[in-house]
Amino acid sequence: MQNIVKEKKNNSFTKKNLLITAGIILGFLVVMYLAEGNLLNRQYKSLIVPIGIYIILAVSLNLTTGFLGELSLGHAGFMAIGAYTGALITLNLNMPEAVEFIIALIVGGFIAAIFGVLIGVPVLRLKGDYLAIVTLAFNEIIRSIINFLGITGGAMGLSKIPRYTNYIWVYILVVLTIVIITNLVNSRHGRAISAIRDNYVAAESIGLKVSKYKVMAFVIAAFFAGIAGVLYGHNLSVLKPADFDYNKSIEILVIVVLGGMGSVRGSVIAAAVLTILPEVLRAADDFRMLLYAVVLIAMMLFNSSGIRTKLEESGKLPKLPKLTRNRAK
Amino acid sequence: MALLEVKNLGISFGGLRAVDDVNLNIEKGQLYGLIGPNGAGKTTIFNLLTGVYRPTTGTIKVDGVDIVGKSPSEICQNGVARTFQNIRLFKKMTVLDNVKAALHNQVKYSLFTSFFRTSNYYQSEKQMNEKAMEILKVFDLDGQANYLASNLPYGKQRKLEIARGLATNPKLLLLDEPAAGMNPNETAELMETIRLVRDKYNITILLIEHDMKLVTGICEKILVLNFGTELATGAPEDVLNNPEVITAYLGE
């Protein structure tokens, strides 16, 4: 058994990486076909970028919620910081498009991360419900400040932001986010983060610095939320503070919970499903939001209760990849 | 010089003196037992030794280093590892990852390496896997390395907790009721393992236990605690025949 585990790990090292690279390229071709080809109409094509943005948001929030195990309701706040920072950079700089956009993405992410440190250090002393409420308050504070400041355009917001975001940028950043977060989770830092989630007293007893790793997870999540914000602003071309209220934070949280806490793959699938769903339900007109809620409840029940396992075991349903993390054999 | 030197240790919770004036000297390589009736303050002493509580009075020295006022993680890096009375594993992580998490401060690489998996990542992880599997093998857990910790049977969970503590490379290992809930066979096996661990890793062990068979079987010296104070110290046979100890356990 011991040898099997080891050998598998060693052999798959290069082969697995090759496969992943091939998968990434293939994925890009599929996205390119969907965005450029004739398969989808314009309505659905315009969803490709938002799906990518929600994937980045959900995967990064999953780091705080799923892997660190702390409920954060302020993710839209970090997104707002990134979005406004990025927009102000591209509006004020006069540089070639790509250069300007890369600067906006990096600076947007970093400013959000700095706020992550400022908020995280005092706030992460709280746990559970208390932390959720404080992060929610932070979200509202950020929104109010943006509403109040002159440079951000107040309640009117910013407009005429160049539309730099396209499916290529989004695809690259989605892949980067997923790769970095998956790598992190499976590293010594990620193990420390998960250990703190499972039992922080035991984590301390084996020499892990609990507050350091809590802040680390929170800040990395904030960084990616900031990047998603930059993409968001340069996709819509207009930004209003009202876009970043607590509803947005909860929307991201819903994706994470539906996809499964601690499952990166689940977050990706759930982000895509929940972005497409309202468009599909557009035909239902008045009943749209009602149906959306019903579908959401049905999916949650199906995924987390025993119904699915029973159907799969009896052979009535093909075995689908599990969204929730289950590594036990 | 003693590996663990505790002098006049005491802690008060409000008006309650939970531990009062306890002295403890454990030599390097010794297997030391801490016994006493329920509520005597045994686990409180463990919490004081590992920095969960800060003592109100007294000093604690591990290998000559004063550890009073240090945080639990710093104390762990000073060479003290422990297990818990109510098992505290990382339940949603695999058995292997539980041990690898404890190797955190032995095999290090940077956050950048974590993000981008440079070759250093593969080398360090391989090294960690080997170390972790070696420790798991001692506890006969190597076959279940990929199980979730919560899916292990109770006895194995207790063993995994010891394995995890051992992975932090301690000088002193504190075991809080390692045999609780085990049947006689498992207890006998555990005794062998504890002895083996002590000899193989050259460490000192302090354990709390109610199972007198285990205590008399492996402990070289015992401290009996009652109402937070020392009742008796000495070799197991002497201490357990002490009338005061019998009274404390069974009443008059």
Mean pLDDT of chain B: 92
What is the helical fraction of chain A, as a range of percent? over 70%
- Structure summary, number of beta strands of chain A: 0
Order of secondary-structure elements of chain B: EEEHEEHEHHHHEHEHEEHH
Q: For the largest sheet of chain B, list the strands in their spatial order.
A: 6-7-8-3-9-10
Helix fraction of chain B? 40-55%
Q: Helix/strand-derived class of chain B?
A: alpha/beta
Q: What is the end-to-end distance of chain B?
A: 39 Å
* CATH architecture tag of chain A: Orthogonal Bundle
Beta content of chain A: under 5%
Largest sheet of chain A: none
- Average pLDDT, all residues of chain A: 87
Distance between the amino and carboxyl termini of chain A:
13 Å
By CATH reckoning, the class of the largest domain in chain B would read Alpha Beta
Listing every helix as H and every strand as E from the N terminus to the C terminus, the arrangement of chain A reads HHHHHHHHHHHHHH
